[in-house]
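Bit of a strange request maybe. I'm writing a small parser for C-alpha cell strings and I need a real example to test against, not something I typed by hand. Could someone generate the C-alpha cells for this chain?
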Amino acid sequence: MRRRLGNAADAADLAHDTFFRLLTRSSIPGFGSFVEARAYLRTIGGGLCVDLWRRREVEQAWSEALAALPEPAAPSPEHQAIVIETLLEIGRMLGRLSQKAARAFVMAQVDGVPYRDIAAELAVSERMVKKYIAQAMLQCALIEAGLDN
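Reply from user aminoacidic:
Good idea to test on real output. This should exercise your parser:
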C-alpha cells in the first residue's frame, strides 16, 4: 500500500482499516496458506485505496467550489464534512445503478430536465425514464433508512 499511495502514514491507516474490517466481519474466511491470506488482505486494501482516492477527489472538488465563494459564504467545517459525506453517499448510490438510470436521475434531479427530454437524450421511452428515476429514489430511500448495505 505504501507504494500505491506514496505515503507511509496513509498506508499505515489503510492497513489498520483493512485488519479492522477483517476482524469485525461476522465470519472470517479460512485460508489454506499465507499466500491466500495475503491476497485476501491485498484485495481489501486495494478497495480501501480506491475509496480513499475517490474521497480525495470529492474533497478536492468541494474545496475548489468553496474557493470560488466569497469568504462570508463559506460553510463551517462541520457543514463541509456533512456535504462531503453526502456527496460520497450519492456517488455510491449512483454506482449501484445502471449508467442510464444514474444519468437519468442526475438529469432530472440536478439539471431539472423534463422526462421527455431525458428519454430523447437516452434513446428510451418516458416510461423507462420513470422506471430509472424510481430505481434511484428507492436507493435514496434505502440510504435514508440505513439499509443501503
